[in-house]
């Protein structure tokens, strides 16, 4: 790992200077290599799938492990999209003259070396590499050991792309050992790694952020809320509450708790209850909710804290905006929260006062996503407060330094 | 401390919602209170100074402890300046329509609660409080125990200012205990504190960043370089190299190593050597330097790594830009580095390739400072890569969340 780290640091310096054209060429050449190798990629992926089945991996994990033709297409499309994004590196902003005569501005610069730790999802290998590369960073990718054949095959495509563009192969390194100690080393190599991005289950992320001595960009939970305000448009409220819960269950931006203003609850909850019933979503409500929805069971305190990632929804009736905001800031995970309202003042207050990484008005929480936000892709989602909040794209993989232009000025 | 933390968290929520006018009013009222209390502030400061002398504090520490009339003036001016700065909180940028119909942008938001740990410099109490307040954060200030009387008196002025503006007094809390364990608790209260800013000597900062479980904004060293390029203007080179070293010795943005291109060294070094001799600056040079400057002693490997904070300068002759950049990225501390050159292409390369928090062309490193950069003031300087690099002002005390405006959009 030390060797990998040293190579990454060196490659990072080269890639930080690479010009935009070179980086874009590398991305497109990687896409070409993947397209050309799709048959052998499928074969390698089958090896992983077979081994996974033999090991008794569950269906959801096998699903994430599989490189279906559409996922390979998505990988290729992702590379092309990232190539088309503006290069963030070197962008100078706010360059202004100061009374002393110097000009002071900020230049966007790469972070250096990014360590990414993720589960057995081979498509993440390409997405992560593409974003790191475009942002001028070297990266060390450590995917789940069950995807080792797929990752090796993808790594070979990435190497070919980098070579074709005249960039150092070590700019993207895939950790090939299944040894768990490698992760422990990766997250403490301060000298060689500047930031760690863990992706996966909560326990993995918790362990990594506790043990890392390198800064970590992460989110632990996605306890997302939709608040249906008294002034909500009923159709929008129903559509959003349904979409936020049922569009996909196992994702971090799915709604887990629905808050409803007391005065609109009798109108909106019966309609929603029926729609949720059709989708077999279990409802757990506060006392008032249960009096409006027969099929709801009583929620306990633990429900407000729970990220179900399943067809279960907690519902609470609140007096109004203040209680909704208080509930969200107390029980939420600072991920994504949405208000449904036609009231201008309340919408404005919700946007400012809800302390989450994504705050929405009249939109489904499911939009909290790098692609939907136009970031091109995301390396992960951050619910921390420093550096980056929400979906982390190219900007989150860079930082800004100060640049000063003078004509010989000295400090008086 | 837990109690302080809880109060800070609560006050932080209130201050994050406070409007700009209210925050500015508080800043101006604090300034008024300090002006009105200047006589009693001086008395309290005298108690600290007397106790410091009795304890045998060194002259430099006593100097930092003293609230001279001009420092009190500067505190008042600082408050007025911060009040005049644009409010960063709530600023929405890059709000753009996406193909789905939603509008996605970023809103600048406070970090929450900032813990600041500093030496016995009472003026820092006001500067730090002003910046935190304007950025919508609550803060917990822990100054050196030798400044306890001064800090209490200043804290009373801050309280009055906050009250006069209708803001919670707990938005700025000064830790009054001299107990060192308080620091240990402050830097691990994850639940109540979002970021720690340590200011002071390297050992203090090192200890805090090793022991903190909360993110730390810090710089350890200021090993700043000036590189005099072959195409440098001789007058600018001499003025900048002299100013960067001798304007003040004990500051982190003073030059510690001078790099000189081989071809210009015979012209520039003798002039500089004479000027440094007049200021009694000790010169430690590489072999080539020593052959040009009789009075220079041979530098050892350790010299390139050293932040002297004293009238000592290391000098190295390099072949050109590549060696200069390599030296800076290897031995520097990513603080502030400057090139003196009239060469457009080399200046442009230096700006991009030197990986420091401030990179300059034809300006003295002494400009690396919040006031000089127009940030109003600085809470500290960061040489880390995440979140903020260089002087940290209002922006560094905030972060950005995503805001999404829709008309009922759902994810397809």
UniProtKB/TrEMBL annotation, chains A, B:
<protein>
    <recommendedName>
        <fullName>Gamma-glutamyl phosphate reductase</fullName>
        <ecNumber>1.2.1.41</ecNumber>
    </recommendedName>
</protein>
<dbReference type="GO" id="GO:0050661">
    <property type="term" value="F:NADP binding"/>
</dbReference>
<dbReference type="GO" id="GO:0005737">
    <property type="term" value="C:cytoplasm"/>
</dbReference>
<dbReference type="GO" id="GO:0055129">
    <property type="term" value="P:L-proline biosynthetic process"/>
</dbReference>
<keyword id="KW-0641">Proline biosynthesis</keyword>
<dbReference type="InterPro" id="IPR020593">
    <property type="entry name" value="G-glutamylP_reductase_CS"/>
</dbReference>
<dbReference type="InterPro" id="IPR000965">
    <property type="entry name" value="GPR_dom"/>
</dbReference>
<dbReference type="GO" id="GO:0004350">
    <property type="term" value="F:glutamate-5-semialdehyde dehydrogenase activity"/>
</dbReference>
<dbReference type="Pfam" id="PF00171">
    <property type="entry name" value="Aldedh"/>
</dbReference>
<feature type="domain" description="Aldehyde dehydrogenase">
    <location>
        <begin position="6"/>
        <end position="280"/>
    </location>
</feature>
<dbReference type="InterPro" id="IPR016163">
    <property type="entry name" value="Ald_DH_C"/>
</dbReference>
<dbReference type="InterPro" id="IPR012134">
    <property type="entry name" value="Glu-5-SA_DH"/>
</dbReference>
<comment type="function">
    <text>Catalyzes the NADPH-dependent reduction of L-glutamate 5-phosphate into L-glutamate 5-semialdehyde and phosphate. The product spontaneously undergoes cyclization to form 1-pyrroline-5-carboxylate.</text>
</comment>
<dbReference type="InterPro" id="IPR016162">
    <property type="entry name" value="Ald_DH_N"/>
</dbReference>
<keyword id="KW-0028">Amino-acid biosynthesis</keyword>
<dbReference type="InterPro" id="IPR015590">
    <property type="entry name" value="Aldehyde_DH_dom"/>
</dbReference>
<keyword id="KW-0521">NADP</keyword>
<comment type="similarity">
    <text>Belongs to the gamma-glutamyl phosphate reductase family.</text>
</comment>
<keyword id="KW-0963">Cytoplasm</keyword>
<keyword id="KW-0560">Oxidoreductase</keyword>
<comment type="pathway">
    <text>Amino-acid biosynthesis; L-proline biosynthesis; L-glutamate 5-semialdehyde from L-glutamate: step 2/2.</text>
</comment>
<feature type="domain" description="Aldehyde dehydrogenase">
    <location>
        <begin position="297"/>
        <end position="368"/>
    </location>
</feature>
<dbReference type="InterPro" id="IPR016161">
    <property type="entry name" value="Ald_DH/histidinol_DH"/>
</dbReference>
